[in-house]
Every structure is written in C-alpha cells, then in structure tokens.
Design brief:
Layout lengths: L1 E5 L1 H5 L6 E3 L6 E6 L1 H4 L1 E6 L7 E4 L5 E6 L2 E6 L5 E6 L4 E7 L2 E6 L2 E5 L5 E6 L4 E7 L2 E6 L4 E5 L5 E5 L2 E3 L1
C-alpha cells in the first residue's frame, strides 16, 4: 500500500467509481495504490491539517480508512468496498482490536465486525477525547472527565467511576 498526495486535477482524472472518499469542498487529495492487481483509489477531504486514519484488519484482509466524516473498508482480496458510510460527526480515532474495528467520532462510538457490518453504535453524552483498551473493553475518555467502558464482545456500555463500573 502506498499513499501519495496529488492535485485536484489528478484526482479529477481518477474514474468516479474509484473515488472512494470524495468531499464536495475538498482541500486535500491523495491516491491510494494497492498494487498491480487491485489498482488505485482516489481520496479527497476537507482539512489541510487532519491526516487519514488507516488500519488493517487483524487478518490483513480488510483496509479501513477514515477522514473527516467518511469511513470506508476495502476488501484486499477483491478490491471491492465492504463499507462506505458517512459519519454523523468528525472521526477522532480508529483502531482494530480483537478483530473488531472501533471508530470514535465527536458524538458516538461504532464497532464493526470483520466483514464490515455494524456490530454496535452508541451516542455519547459529551465530546470524547480518545479511547484505550483494557482486556475486552474499550475505555472512552470524555473531555469533561467522565469515562465509559464498552465491552467489545457483548456491547455492554457502562459509566466508570474511578476504576469501578456503575450500573
């Protein structure tokens, strides 16, 4: 995989079907090269300062890409999009943990199965800063200091007080 910054005119020359993240008011453009078999894809996004979030699935068969309010997952065996979805808010963090892809936005947490299907989503009560993992749980830190635990397998979502779960 190779990502190369390109101009708007170079992006416009990429066939529409291969423009997998395309923003109407894009400021930054890139070409994602997945090799001779799968070819290349076009990406465009708004912010000059924000970089792409890129994660491989644990089995290396799926490539997840997120930026601004867009998320895609490309099957690396076929080159087809397994997922292409707009997000309701800007992406903050993305990671693949125990075969689950976790996506944190400004207002929700989403978990995806290895095939790209949605496993879980939950709105957050405040603006999140980041998440970390402890065992089978994501710990989501909010700006105001609250923390929530989300079990990756069961979807159980609970507020943490100190290190204790509150029902």
């Amino acid at each position: 995989m190779k990502i190369e910054t390109i101009s708007k005119s170079e992006f416009d020359q990429i066939p529409g079907i291969r423009q997998i993240i395309c923003h109407q008011y894009a400021q930054k453009f890139a070409r994602l090269d997945l090799g001779e078999v799968l070819g290349y894809y076009g990406l465009s996004w708004r912010s000059q300062l924000v970089e792409l979030s890129i994660e491989y699935s644990t089995d290396q068969k799926m490539l997840w890409i997120g930026i601004d309010q867009q998320l895609v997952a490309i099957c690396l065996e076929s080159g087809r999009l397994s997922l292409a979805m707009p997000l309701t808010a800007n992406l903050i963090q993305m990671a693949v943990i125990q075969k689950v892809t976790a996506v944190l936005t400004e207002n929700e947490i989403l978990l995806f199965n290895p095939n790209g299907s949605l496993r879980f989503n939950r709105g957050l009560p405040d603006f999140p800063e980041q998440f970390s993992t402890i065992g089978n749980n994501l710990v989501i830190q909010l700006v105001e200091g609250d923390r929530f635990s989300l079990n990756l397998q069961t979807g159980q979502f609970q507020k943490l007080v100190g290190e204790v779960l509150v029902s």
